[in-house]
Amino acid sequence: MLDMISKACFHALAGSRTIERLASRYGMARPTSFGRRFIPGVTLDEAIAAARAVQSQGMSVTLDQLGESVATISAADAATRGYLEMIAAIVGSGVERNISIKLSQLGLGVDRAVCTDNVRRILEASDPHGFFVRIDMEASPTVATTLQIVDTLWEHGCRQIGVVLQSALRRSEEDARALTAKGIRIRLVKGAYKEPNAVAYQRKADVDAAFRRIMEYLLREGTFPAIATHDPVLIDAAKRLAAEHSIASDTFEFQMLYGIRRDLQAALVAQGYGLRLYVPYGRQWFPYFMRRLGERPANVGFVLRALVRDR
Ligand code: FDA
Whose CA is nearest to atom 5 of ligand 1? Predict the structure, then answer.
């Protein structure tokens, strides 16, 4: 119960522009030292350095320029240009060519056509260099439109894209089948947003059970699925299923967030599984950081201690 209240509270904070502005004004323009555990930097150079470090430990990366829910076309354009700079920097750096984008950052909430156009600009710049572009999934009101945009791009021949499905959402099993029928790659997550009962399971046990069902389906039928969780029970279930059904370990990958469960990350690498880390960077770290706090209330104690130390 306490967990649910704290999660709801952090979700409210994550969406609050006022708190975000206050945090920046009062000395939190960069993530605290605890925040840096999750967000390795605010600049592209810092992100590239972090990606190199991750790769040197035997893991792959996907880079994410933080930011979401822009309110103007010019902010969406600025985010798109940020991605174009990122693509050029990655090409020059030798870091793996894999990025994650959020449609609300590219203008989904302002003008759907502008958003689609911005995604196309990113794909036109990234495709010739062999990038893979993952479209993150955001709160439930955006899911149908996000999937429609993915579908449109796919029908226009964009093959270097994939999307994310959240097991918390009741619709995701059906979405998994529809995307798989087309060969579209799926990253499966539990879901980071507070959602209403009408569209999402509310009990963790139900979210986990749905994750397990979709994961089993994707491991058998999906196109290079990404099992994105830090949950050791589900990770073990994936390994077991793969072994029982002779699913080769190079036909799927695990994914985790930068800085979370580093013990599990090291163990998976040592066991020879493919593991990709989501490496976020940028000035707009506040909502991402709040969601990470909401996922594990114990993090709040760490962050308060880090804040006192930093000041
Ligand atoms: P769960 O929350 O049950 O945690 C399992 C264990 O992991 C915990 O017991 C704890 O040990 C550890 N853990 C989890 N979160 C932690 C934290 N913040 N701090 C410390 N320990 C923590 N969501 C979304 O809605 N759209 C998206 O596009 C994405 N994209 C995405 C990419 C990748 C690569 C990952 C790994 C995750 C996402 N997510 C996401 C986030 C996802 O929906 C989910 O909120 C988090 O992964 C936490 O859920 P777990 O599956 O880890 O399980």
Answer: 231
Q: Rounded CA gap, 268 and 244, in Å? A: 18
**Pick the catalytic residue: 136, 208, 276, 291?**
136
pTM of the predicted structure, to 2 decimals? 0.93
Nearest to 225 by CA among 311, 162, 170, 160: 162
Contact 63, 279 (CB under 8 A): yes
226: Cβ below 6 Å to ligand 1?
Answer: no
Is the pLDDT at 28 greater than 60? The verdict is no
Q: Which of 37, 97, 134, 187 is catalytic?
A: 187
On the question of pLDDT at 5 being above 60, the answer is no
Residue 37's pLDDT is 85
* Residue 294 CA, closest ligand 1 atom number: 18
Residues paired with residue 165 on neighbouring β-strands, in sequence order: 188
Q: Which of 9-23, 60-74, 104-118, 281-295 shows the lowest per-residue confidence on average (mean pLDDT)? A: 9-23
* pLDDT number for residue 22: 61
Let me know: does 156 contact 127? Beta carbons within 8 Å.
Answer: no
* Distance, C-alpha 264 to centroid of its chain: 18
Is the CB of 299 inside a 6 Å radius of any atom of ligand 1? yes
Specify the 3-state DSSP secondary structure of 190: coil
Kindly report the protein residue whose alpha carbon is nearest to atom 31 of ligand 1: 189
> Does the active-site annotation cover 45?
no
d(CA 208, CA 201) in angstroms, rounded, equals 10
What pLDDT score was predicted for residue 300?
73
CB 147 within 8 A of CB 163: yes
Atom of ligand 1 at shortest distance to CA of 276?
34
Contact 179, 214 (CB under 8 A): no
